[in-house]
Amino acid sequence: MGEQRGHDQRPRLQGCHRVGGRSQSRRGRDPRRQSRRRVGHAVARAEVVRARLADPAASLHQGLRHRCAGSPRKGCPGVQDHHRQPLWHVGCSHRPSRRNALMTVRPTVVVVGLGPGGPEFVTEQTRAAIAQARHRFLRTAIHPSAGLVPDAVTFDHLYESADTFDSVYLQITEALVGAATEHGEVLYAVPGSPLVLERSVRQLRDDPRVHCILLPAISFLDLAYSALGIDPVESALQLIDGHDFATAAAGVTGPLLIAHCHANWVLSDIKLAIDDAADSAGTTNDTVAVTVLQRLGTPDELITHTTWAEMDHVVDADHLTSIYVPRLNVAVAQHYARFHALTRTLREQCPWDIEQTHASLIPHLLEETYEVVDALQELDPDDPGTDEALIEELGDLLYQIEFHATIAEQQGRFTIADVTQGIHDKLIRRHPHVFGDVRAESTDQVLSNWEAIKHAEKGRTSIFDGIPNSLPSLSYAYKAQKKASGVGFDWPDVHGALPKIAEETAEVLHAHASGDQAATAEEIGDLLFAVVNVARHLRVDPEVALRNAVGKFRTRFEGVEQLAAERGIVLAASDLAVLDQLWDEVKARGLNQ
Q1: Is residue 586 one of the residues assigned to a domain?
Q2: Taking the CB of residue 521, how many other CB atoms lie within 10 A of it?
Q3: Residues 403, 469 share a domain
Q4: Which of 69, 105, 261, 403 is within CB 3.0–4.6 Å of 321 for a Cys-Cys bond?
Q5: Is residue 152 helix, strand or coil?
Q6: What residues have CB less than 8 Å from 212, skipping those under 6 apart?
């Protein structure tokens, strides 16, 4: 099957490109007909580079061996017999170009699928790649075709020791990246097809540290379609990961094919996710028909017809178990599903919504964000009634996010599911101290790890890469200074930063006296930058501090307006002395309250 876990227990803590392979040969020329010498030389050079990275001491011998690899000659007997082509060359069309073979030294992980059942479902290309590989890894040895991968390192132990599945897949990814970095190229075998519900493969493909090459394989889907007698396209079948059912099946009623049902507790969790939604809707799914598919493509194949209420009682789920549900009476996460459907309806039928674009919605996104900030600042921990404003403003902000995702979905670019999947995977990657074996004993260590991982993921060359240009100016200055401080460009303490305020103030006055308005504006910017630097050293967010100061000023001046109205004073007709007196009076009242 796709990504069977291979064990019947929960994790210990319960509850918790492709290679483009584009040939650089001239148009119309079959790359297979290139001269043997030319192709062999490119492959040889790539292996020499990889070998030198892996074992510098052996580089001289490796270089001599590959000089002789193109054609046997006197003095190099039998050298060609020892020449090994990289795994991508084994009947695989996704191979690097000649230029890439010479220049690319990124570690490679070749991913193969072992099919849905017995060895008869494993392709010849996969068998050849396994035989060719020097370093082999198996996600799980609990599979009918696992014996085809001899001398392989398995990851079954992680399922017993890790706290969550996210931790399992993160550790698998790190282990494979490490092995590929050490050896240059490794083979990773997974159940079924690498492209069907294999989260570890998805993480490898997204990891910029390695080249991930996928060989095509047979998945469990064809066997399931045959056993069920359905056309997945005509029936609009949706494939769901049983581990993520509560989120992946949001708003869906069927038909569903749910994989990764490797244990009865997985079936129970699936039922609970739906039953909670059914209870809130005043209905039930108990009598819904369910077909349990087990060990398809093996002599022990079993198909059981039962009901939603009984499915975790009448079968003994294993690593080759999936379930088919023609239709549910109520969907999981139906409240969000209704919200999602409403957003789409408005986009299709409301004239204002139809006219909007990503760009036109920017002011609304900013406005709703600031209103959330206001609601947070007014939140009273001792007054649950203040939650209502926050609930409302968070809803408005969520609508903006959903709106943008809906626009993108209509354009065929991405969906809200891509958004949620992306942030989920990023949070897993950025928290190796939670889901991996990295230790972080303090907040500073967590932030340091976060920045290092982000830098590696983005391939950034400057410390300032990633700071949004649209940030408010004070926050922009704060983040820029913090980035520079991270590499040591900073005063040791606030006493080094404070004198800069006086220095920049003097320069402002000098520029103003010269009558040069552009110079004055520049010096004002330097002065503000110096003030932000002092705030940063004192661990004060300048954006928040200034906002609070403006709020205090506004409150006091509103008091001045009220006091003036009580005394019949017209502010616009009053001089500064009158205004100062009213201000001081309001200020004194505030201090005495």
Answers
A1: yes
A2: 11
A3: no
A4: 261
A5: strand
A6: 17, 18, 19, 108, 109, 111, 201, 204, 205
Residue 214 vs residues 189, 268, 570, 593: alpha-carbon distances, Å: 10, 34, 78, 71
Q: Do residues 326 and 392 both lie within one domain?
A: no
Helix (H) or strand (E) holding 213: strand 211-214
Letter for the amino acid at 226?
A: S
CA angle 327/329/331 to nearest 5° reads: 90
Helix/strand/coil (H, E, C) string of 390-413? HHHHHHHHHHHHHHHHHHHHHCCC
> Does any domain span residue 36?
no
**Can you name the residues that pair with 154 across neighbouring β-strands?**
138
Please identify which residue in the block is written with the tokens 């939670």.
Answer: 434
End-to-end Cα spacing for the chain: 70
Domain range enclosing 567: 544-592
**Block mean pLDDT (10 aa), the chain, length 593:** 46 36 38 38 41 38 35 37 46 46 72 93 95 95 93 92 84 94 96 91 91 93 92 91 82 88 90 72 80 92 93 90 90 78 92 95 92 90 90 95 95 88 86 83 84 73 80 90 89 93 95 95 95 95 91 92 91 91 88 45
Residues 6+ apart with CB under 8 A from 76: 68
Supply the DSSP symbol for 303: E
